[in-house]
Write a structure and sequence with these properties.
The complex is a heterodimer of chains A (167) and B (483). By secondary structure, chain A is mainly α. Helices cover 77% and strands 0% of the residues of chain A. Chain A has 2 domains: 86 residues, NADH-ubiquinone/plastoquinone oxidoreductase chain 6, subunit NuoJ (Four Helix Bundle (Hemerythrin (Met), subunit A), Up-down Bundle), CATH 1.20.120; 50 residues. Chain A contains 7 helices and no strands. In chain A, helix 1 runs antiparallel to helix 2 and helix 2 packs antiparallel against helix 3. In chain A, 11% of the residues are buried. The model of chain A has no long low-confidence stretch (mean pLDDT 88). Chain B has 483 residues and is mostly helical. Chain B has one domain. Chain B is 76% helix and 1% strand. Chain B has a two-stranded antiparallel ribbon. In chain B, helix 3 runs antiparallel to helix 4. Chain B is globular. About 2% of the residues of chain B have low confidence. Classes of the chains: A mainly alpha (167), B mainly alpha (483). Chains A and B meet through helix 4 and helix 7 of A and helix 2, helix 5, helix 6, helix 7 and helix 9 of B.
Chain lengths: 167, 483
């Protein structure tokens, strides 16, 4: 019961603050709303018994990425207030509402009961959250993990190539 | 799961590809002649193609990575793509003043991502490969840093690409919640075992997959990014992504829909029909109004995605075979056409406006003849390969019982003749506009031996496949025998 209430609180705040990220005219306000989103997503991870992911969420997203975003906002001095919506906002709103209603209808009417994996909560508790994730990451998901490292390399090359003054 | 050394043999082509891309990146520090990096890239891609041929089929990393005929055929398309595009880039990136080693390296990384996508046996692997491919292409699109058009194209491509990735991820997460697995074969098994054919969430995730992949193959109505991105990107990269990204998207569509979701075959082919028809209609009609040839070819790429989708709609092995051979043919004709555009891009001359082609046959008869072949092939006129490709795609769709989409496609295909043959008409039936004298035009053409080879290879492949089509079809049939 208490967990349910906690979940709905976290989910609601995540969605509302994510909405604020998009609709706030002031970029700094958006960044703060983003911080709220990150922290509450970390809370949802905690509810799912994923302490490691929650910690990473705070460290990487709130700690590193958000600091970078705010740094960029300060650096570029983003004070100009742009128009937030264009002429198509009514159509977009209509399509959005219809899509949302469809997804809501389908999700609430179907139980998502997939097969259980190798790591039920009891086992994760026993061997430790971080160990379990590390074990899966370096055995079952080794290949995508290595490709992900290449993605980071490409991102780095791209940032340097596109941003450096003289190459 | 245990780590098996045998897995390394199966992913050997990918390992070599990653190594070559990194070697080029490092060699760029010491080598001043970037031409040799391009040479290294071409040789490297050739070696990878050889290892793919020698590679024994099998699954690695507990089914996450599958090497079979299907993936090999697609990897061949990607490698042909990267080799030809590297060869047409050498002179072009000097003219555009973007002669950097990272260019070749990023192209190889992007190809690696495509290869991973084609081999993915698992939705996570598929997604990670897709991101590797897409991220490298975003950077390459904005590679002309001093050109605002290129920057704009990269930003648009990046934002909409990230948006479509979100759709794809949403679909993946739903199917994971429903089945509890990400492996394509297990998903199909679980659906069969538990009778989930009519499950609503399954439909929803399938639709989200269609959106995600539809964006990558630039099928209407998910095509809005394509004209801007194709026009702004460096011309060589336009060729690269119009062929490579599209083929990779189709590889993923074939794999996911045929292996993971065969239970709802009827549903996804019903959803893909309007997509295909709309792509063909939007692509061919919008292309008529274009005066920039890159933009025209962007709309034509949308239309060609629609034709290839007709093969997927057939939803049987013959359909997949026709889709695969169509993409192989499209690789040659599209890169050939872009090679001609690149040759017209000299110092000071853009060569992108279709008026630039007026009287080309008088100035450069050989080049005009090559363009003639590519335009005929894109229209689908025999004896070029474009005709064979379209013929088999239409054939397989009709055999599967979809007659009216094919009728519509044929009508629009006839309309497409207008804008392809308009180029031919400009080249052969109009006089050169500026009366500067023939000699003065010579330096405008940026020729190099590499680009000449590309033109000859592409034209020879188109005529060869057009006259002896059975070879390519047998290759594609053999490729999916174990599908």
């Amino acid at each position: 019961m208490i967990l349910n209430i906690l979940f709905f609180y976290l989910a609601a705040v995540t969605i509302i603050s994510a909405l604020f990220v998009v609709i706030k005219r002031n970029a700094v306000h958006s960044a703060i709303a983003l911080l709220v989103t990150f922290v509450h997503v970390a809370g949802i991870f905690l509810l799912l018994n994923s302490e490691f992911l929650a910690a990473v969420q705070i460290l990487v997203y709130a700690g590193a990425i958000l600091v970078l975003i705010i740094f960029v906002i300060m650096y570029l001095n983003v004070t100009q207030r742009y128009r937030m919506f264009n002429r198509l906002k009514l159509i977009a709103f209509f399509v959005g509402v219809v899509l949302f209603a469809e997804v809501l209808y389908i999700i609430t009417r179907t139980a998502l009961k997939g097969q259980k994996g190798e790591f039920p909560i009891a086992k994760v508790m026993e061997m430790g959250n971080t160990e379990a994730i590390g074990k899966v990451l370096f055995t079952d998901y080794l290949f995508p993990f290595e490709i992900a490292s290449l993605i980071l390399l490409v991102a780095m090359i791209g940032a340097i190539v596109l941003a450096k003054k003289e190459i | 799961m245990q780590f098996l050394p045998a897995d390394m043999n199966i992913i050997m082509p990918e390992i070599i590809m990653a190594l070559i891309a990194i070697i080029i990146l490092l060699a760029d520090l010491v080598i001043k002649r970037k031409k040799s990096l391009a040479f290294l890239g071409v040789i490297g891609a050739g070696v990878v193609a050889y290892t793919i041929m020698m590679d024994s089929p099998g699954a690695a990393f507990s089914g996450m990575f599958i090497s079979d005929g299907y993936s090999k055929f697609f990897k061949l398309i990607f490698l042909v793509n990267v080799i030809l595009v590297t060869m047409i880039s050498v002179k072009y990136i000097i003219i555009e003043k973007i002669n950097l080693g990272e260019y070749y390296s990023l192209m190889l990384f992007s190809t690696l991502g495509m290869m991973v996508m084609a081999s993915a046996g698992d939705l996570i692997t598929l997604y990670v490969g897709l991101e590797l491919m897409a991220l490298s292409t975003y950077v390459l699109t904005g590679f002309i840093r001093h050109n605002t058009k290129s920057n704009e194209a990269a930003i648009k491509y990046f934002l909409l690409g990230a948006f479509s990735s979100a759709f794809l991820l949403y679909g993946i997460s739903m199917i994971y919640g429903l089945t509890g697995t990400l492996e394509l074969k297990d998903i199909a098994d679980y659906i069969n075992k538990n009778g989930l054919e009519n499950n609503k969430v399954l439909m929803l995730s399938m639709i989200l997959f269609v959106v995600g992949f539809g964006f990558k193959i630039a099928a209407a109505p998910f095509h809005m990014w394509a004209p801007d991105a194709y026009e702004g990107a460096p011309t060589s990269i336009t060729a690269f992504m119009s062929v490579g990204t599209k083929a990779a998207g189709f590889a993923a569509i074939g794999r996911v829909f045929m292996i993971a979701l065969p239970a709802i075959k009827l549903e996804w082919s019903t959803i893909l029909i309007p997509l295909a028809i709309l792509s063909i209609a939007v692509g061919n009609i919008a292309a008529i109004a274009q005066t920039n040839i890159k933009r025209m070819l962007a709309y034509s790429a949308i239309a060609h995605a629609g034709y290839a989708l007709l093969g997927v709609i057939a939803a049987d092995n013959e359909g997949i075979v026709s889709m695969m051979s169509y993409l192989m043919i499209y690789t040659f004709m599209n890169i050939g056409a872009f090679a001609v555009i690149i040759m017209l891009r000299g110092e000071g001359a853009k060569g992108e406006d279709i008026n630039d082609y007026e009287g080309l046959a008088k100035k450069h008869p050989v080049l005009a003849a090559f363009m003639l072949i590519f335009m005929f092939s894109l229209t689908g006129i025999p004896p070029t390969a474009g005709f064979i490709g379209k013929f088999y795609v239409f054939m397989s769709a009709i055999n599967a019982g979809y007659v009216w989409p094919v009728v519509v496609a044929v009508i629009f295909s006839a309309i497409s003749a207008y804008f392809y043959l308009r180029i031919v008409m400009y080249m052969y039936m109009k006089e050169p506009i500026n009366n500067v004298g023939v000699q003065n035009f010579e330096p405008l053409l940026s020729t190099s031996p590499a680009i000449g080879i590309v033109l000859i290879v592409a034209a020879a492949a188109l005529l060869g496949i057009g006259i002896f089509p059975s070879f390519l079809l047998e290759l594609a049939r053999a490729a999916i025998s174990g599908f």
